[in-house]
Specification:
Helix content is 39%, strand content 27%. It is of the alpha+beta class. It is flat.
């Protein structure tokens, strides 16, 4: 399994509601329409360990069969629309998006 992580910084407090509305009503459905996505996990990272507020606003995981499937997905019309919408979100709300990916390996827990 190959996972792409889209990591969003916090919008300004007065923009959170509008960001969330666009993200959940427009951006996430676009991402869900990308061919080859096997699973999508949306996390609102409002909480942080310790006393400081979370430095991140959202982390989204998109799961693909492999890195080649991600490349095909990104080149698709749906992938390009999602990428364009991400750029529009960043510009409109002054947030930063970092995307990183890698092969996921599950590790057994405990002894």
């Amino acid at each position: 399994m190959y996972k792409l992580f889209a990591v969003w910084t916090n919008p300004e407090p007065e923009d959170v509601e509008a960001f969330e509305r666009h993200y959940t009503e427009v951006h996430a459905p676009l991402a869900a329409s990308i061919p080859g996505v096997r699973r999508m996990v949306l996390t609102r990272t409002a909480d942080a360990l310790g006393e400081e507020p979370s430095p991140l606003h959202r982390i989204t995981e998109l799961w693909f069969d492999d890195e080649e499937a991600l490349a095909v997905a990104a080149a698709s019309a749906e992938g390009q629309a999602t990428i364009a919408d991400a750029a529009a979100l960043a510009e409109r709300f002054g947030v930063e998006l970092t995307s990183t990916g890698g092969t996921a390996v599950e590790q057994p827990l405990g002894a």
